[in-house]
Amino acid sequence: MTQSFQASRQWERISELWVTEEASVDLTDFKSDRVNYKISLWDPRTNGIRYLKALVYELATRLEPEDWERIQKVPNREVGNPVTVRVDGKSVCMDYLQASLEIGFIEKEVELRGARVMEIGAGYARTCHAMLSNYDLDEYCIVDLKNTMMLSRRYLREVLDDEQFAKVRFVEVGDIGAELESSRFDLCINVHSFTEMTPATVDAYLALIDEKCSAFFVKNPVGKYIDKSMDGYLEGDEAVQMALENGPLRKVLDIHDSEAVEAAVPEFISAYRPADGWTCAADGRGVPWSYFWQALYRKSGSHS
Which among 78, 143, 235, 287 has most CB atoms closer than 10 A? Predict the structure, then answer.
């Protein structure tokens, strides 16, 4: 019997355009260029959604039943057409997967039933949505910039029912003094925004937390990084320099080196302690990102 062993049309094309005879001449960078991206890996420069879905899927397979329960309690998660995966018949995206893990971390240290919560820098308000869907809060106060608040207000009006939406208070940063003068909160939350503020602004917010709150949850990077291979500096060098000058932790480190990240944790714990008299009740890695850390602080004398 005559047998035919030959390259497919697909691989004839690959051999012509990518894995050429010249590819074996210089091995210096071949594992991180188009040659290897045709042999072993999907090109991360053009396959971002593929890798995001792979990451979400992998994280979702590791969730505990209580993590899924918190996610399933949040209605209308499909608003905005998120990138999702399905695991065991349940749909999840990265945002609400993180929200579930974050509030699961918080609830171990803070009584959330009837709590008054303030979030500084809420993004589109996925944390607010998740918390109001899981706990009978008394109030959720969002402090943010005007344009971002327009987005979060619109989103929450879409995903929350009338009773839940009535519990949300929106405070623009310019109105903090007047709007929060007599306010007190059981918990303050900041997720990945203090790192984008000037050091002086972060100090001002920490003083506000010390004055107004009994507990504080923070999830932010432990430092800065310079790695053009990650995004090609898509927004330009000026945007990179702006990022490097913000936040309380501006030391540049290898964010994908576990030892470098762990070495930066003590400074993280210190930098985000609102004031003397606050203790760090719990801390740990801010999954899924390699260089994020999370911590929960309590003010002395509070009974959260």
Answer: 143
Nearest by Cα to 66 from 93, 102, 100, 114: 100
Return d(Cα 266, Cα 16) in angstroms, integer.
53
**Domain finish residue from 62, 86, 114:** 62
Query: Is 304 inside a domain boundary?
Result: no
Residues 234, 103: one domain? yes
274 shares a domain with 184: yes
Residue 4 counted as domain residue: no
Q: Is residue 16 part of a domain?
A: no
Q: How far apart are CA 229 and CA 225, in angstroms?
A: 11
**194-218 residue pLDDT tens:** 999 999 999 999 999 999 999 999 9
Residue (of 225, 234, 218, 303) closest to 269 by Cα position: 218
Q: Cβ distance 299 to 278 under 8 Å?
A: yes
pTM over 0.85: yes
Q: 287, exposed or middle or buried, with CB in 10 Å at 0-12, 13-18, 19+?
A: middle
Measuring CA to CA, how many Å separate 9 from each of 6, 248, 300?
Answer: 9, 55, 70
How many domains does the chain contain in total? 2
